[in-house]
Amino acid sequence: MDRNKEIQGHLLAFITIFIWGTTFISTKILLDVLTPIEILFLRFAIGFLVLLLACPHRLKVKEFKHELYFAGAGLCGVTLYYLLENIALTYTLVSNVGVIISIAPFFTAIFAHRFLDGEKLQTRFFIGFLIAVIGILFISLQGGNNLQIHPLGDILAVLAAVVWAVYSILTKKISGFQYNTIQVTRRIFLYGLVFMVPSLFIFGFKPTLNELLTPAHLFNILFLGLAASALCFVTWNSAVKILGAIKTSIYIYMVPVITVVTSVIVLQEKMTGASVFGIVLTLTGLFISQRKKHKKRD
What we know:
mainly alpha, globular
């Protein structure tokens, strides 16, 4: 792989994760006036409209099989992942969800090894994975809370990690179809919104317009729609196309790191010694997992 292209892939993955790591703050603010499903539908509806304006040309699908991949990606990466994560948060602790979601790279690696050519498992991946998860445990327990088991919520969080891994595999497959990334992401969003419609009837969809249009709430929903959805799904899909599913998914380890740092800056929360130690371990795990295997010279 061209060195500059690889650096571009890592940069895109980092930008994506940096923004996604700050979305918890925006979501927390919006939960005062919107339900989780309302936030989810609005952010992806905004994202879809922005991508439509950015690239209004219709996506001409070459094969019907490709359409099935788009539908699967929309179902897994947009609808199921976020619904499972949001519902899990109502049954278990935020710290539990943060730790469990971080195992998505593990499932991605297993699926990639099975279904993708050229994405093989390496020992260093598992070493880095274990170090990073231990670090994430320290970060999640920074407030002194004990990690408690809540079977239903924890299982839903595991399922969320699994469907995100499936999404990563599907997007890597889609990248081989040679379509425009913005058009592909827009099509995935469309399917995600369509699959989301039944949940709107189940959970209700009655956002309060007056509350939503207040400056703070409007800024945060636009941030989720424009940056965290429209921009980040394009940059993430581009990173997967360049680096592959396994290498890109490893950046998920950084989400709790960024969340802790931004909560200290924005919410003035205190960073404990445990969280600092956890951040060091997580970044070490990320580095080990990403490190290339050097070939021996004769």
